[in-house]
What we know:
Elements: H1 2-20, H2 24-43, H3 53-61, H4 71-82, H5 87-109, H6 115-124, H7 127-133, H8 135-152, H9 156-167, H10 177-185, H11 189-205, H12 211-220, H13 225-229, H14 242-264, H15 272-294, H16 309-321, H17 326-350
Helix pairs in contact: 1-2, 1-6, 2-5, 5-8, 6-16, 6-17, 7-8, 8-9, 10-15, 11-14, 11-15, 14-15, 14-16, 15-16
Amino acid sequence: MGVFIAVFGVFLVSELLGKFFSNHKLNIGMLCLSMAILILITGLRNSSVGTDSEMYVGILTNPFKHCPTEIGYCIVNRGLFALGLPYTVLFLLEGLILYTAMGLFIYWYIDERWWMIASLLLIVTHVFFYAMNASRQYLAVALVCLALMFFEKKHLIWAIILVLGAATMHKTALLGFIPMLLTYFAKSEKFRRFSIIAVVASFFLQFINYMPIFTWVGQRIGKYQQYQQGKGMAAYTSSSTAYWIAYSLAVSIVYVFYIVNQLRNKEIETDASALRRSSFLISGSLSYVVLMNVFAANWLLNRLSEYFIIFFIWLLCACLQSLSNHTFRITATVTVLLLFTVACFVQVYIKGNYGVLPYLFFFQ
């Protein structure tokens, strides 16, 4: 736990330094440093850190004989195996791709004054911890993040190639096409009003019993049969726990607040480039909130929203930034960070989720 507290402390000090010594080059340096720290902590971990890490290390020991994952991930493992490289190289590669993508997103889409807050949110919104647990999916998350940025920059072919490439790591990465489609509709005020209805409706959908769907899927997809036969299915309930109800309600409120504030202040852009950018960010945020709401009760399916969690981090920063009263903005920011930190502490330390404790380096 000490390693994680130290990382959080470094990020917090970096945020304070940025406030007292505001400088563009310093801010870039701090952002790069924070991403480098996350890469190293992720990449230099022992195979015992992360619930699924042992499984991925097992695949790497002989991926030609046994590779029960998508073909792209098998190819990566076979390449590393052929070169005689250890699992640490795989973890470093995954961390490098993930936090390069996240860092670029923060750099391009989040206001510079909020870069370190966004970096802190990568930790306390559990991205940092979940990425060490489900590292294969987060490799796909990174590729989807890059794909969506290419899409926003009007490089559609590269965007499609990256999403399809991500799907060879994790099939669920095909969800990356959703924000691309929504972006074309999100330019209208009517769509943004409708999106509020979609968020409210999706919140109540989480209380539906999805067990018959899980059973049907499990019977047809071999690797999910283990969840039916093991303890995983115990997590499937007809209603969310208090934690997930509170979390999904919070993310819904944040989205609705942003859209209502935008509509009330008539802040829909008229410039084509700015409108595309705004529509893109709203589409990604909407994708995150709706997927989180619908599957909040189910740990296996609510991770589908992880492909767009960086958009939620943008949304949260944008909402806090929009608060006009300086004192209230600081109070709200501290409160948000405190609440997420406490929730993260409960999930990681008290409940032991993600299997990241105790943290050990690869040489330990």
